[in-house]
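User: quick one, sequence for these tokens?
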């Protein structure tokens, strides 16, 4: 009997914050923040970013609330990665260790400058958002971007053969559905039952 696979998701977003706008000047990419998500209701969302929404200088490992605050008017793209249940559990527990020891980790601000120069620099217990997401998968046997995690930018996930684009558009539209990636959600979108403004579903 075939064991059904489970999905781990990657959320790429643009919150429009000052730091995001500064990064976008250099990357020219539409999304400059990456998070790893373990449920399609967007409750178990993890990344490296602000620990306090109003203070960009206090940053590190965070469990993000994408239902309010900086994410209220964010644009996003939402990807799935299908893995077997054992690997799902392995990756989930790996991230939980970050949460348990969150005080030991810091935001790799210096790494953002090096990545713009395409220079690989690894710092102990320090990550920027896309470096963290890439490292989580790489340490568990999946290299999503085909490069070092220290050189991985959010845009690199867009071309990953391991990821399937499920949604692109306003994050508020994605949040409105209790099960945003189910066939039911896609059916409602395609039949005009949910607002489609600036949003698109891709299979």
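Assistant:
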């Amino acid at each position: 009997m075939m064991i059904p696979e489970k999905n781990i998701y990657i959320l790429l977003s643009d919150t429009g914050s000052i730091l995001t706008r500064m990064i976008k000047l250099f990357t020219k990419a539409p999304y400059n923040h990456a998070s790893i998500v373990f449920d399609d209701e967007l409750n178990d969302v993890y990344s490296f970013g602000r620990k306090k929404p109003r203070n960009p200088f206090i940053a590190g490992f965070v469990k993000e609330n994408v239902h309010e605050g900086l994410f209220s008017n964010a644009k996003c793209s939402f990807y799935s990665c299908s893995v077997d249940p054992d690997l799902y559990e392995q990756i989930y527990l790996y991230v939980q260790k970050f949460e348990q020891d969150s005080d030991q980790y810091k935001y790799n601000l210096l790494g953002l400058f090096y990545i713009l120069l395409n220079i690989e620099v690894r710092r102990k217990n320090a990550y920027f958002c896309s470096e963290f997401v890439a490292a989580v998968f790489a340490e568990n046997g999946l290299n999503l971007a085909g490069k070092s995690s220290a050189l991985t930018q959010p845009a690199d996930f867009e071309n990953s053969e391991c990821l399937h684009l499920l949604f692109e558009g306003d994050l508020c539209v994605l949040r409105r559905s209790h099960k945003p990636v189910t066939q039911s959600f896609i059916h409602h979108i395609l039949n005009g039952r949910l607002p489609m403004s600036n949003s698109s579903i891709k299979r």
